[in-house]
Amino acid sequence: MMTPRICRTLIAGLMVLGFCAGCFGTTPPAVFYSLTPIGDTAAIQPHGAEGKIAIGIGPVKFPDELNRPSIVTRSGRNRLEVDPFHRWGGSLEKNFTRVMEENMALLVKTDRVMTRPWERYFQPDVRLALDIRQFDGRLGEYASLNVTWMIVGPEGDAPLLVRRTIIQEAVANDSYDALVDAQSRAVARLCREIAEALSEQIPMQ
To answer: Which residues contact 138 (CB under 8 A, 6 or more apart)?
Structure first.
């Protein structure tokens, strides 16, 4: 037979377990996000480039602090915030390069765009290499993209062009949806700048 003391201890233990279960039950589900390519056709048309140039994208390097499933934001000049409940739907690097591939195909009017590692049959006329320095933002304020990129010819020796691009896009509100939308627009602006540079740097036949 249980003594009153044992009963009280057992009841207290059950109450603690119930409280913990209630806490775990209120954990919010994770939400997943993806960058999106540009959807309009009001694009740059490089001189004589339509359907002719083959573009290879890669390598695309990201800093270690962004190489994670969670979306990274800033709350101060030197402070990063990592929210475990707001995540990228897959690899941020692969999502970024896939969106670049779609954007460049639309902007340059070519179906011959492929990201590394490409198949043996694909021989790019030019290759785009990118070193991402920053790709984050502040909720309700802005999204930032800081990248050094280069255009490399088919021989792969000295680059034809090296440029640094810094972009800030306003964020409509303090939601992660708005932040990712602004980041998508930043990638689109970068692709437009690269497309313009291609039209100036690459002799079209």
So the answer is: 73, 74, 75, 171
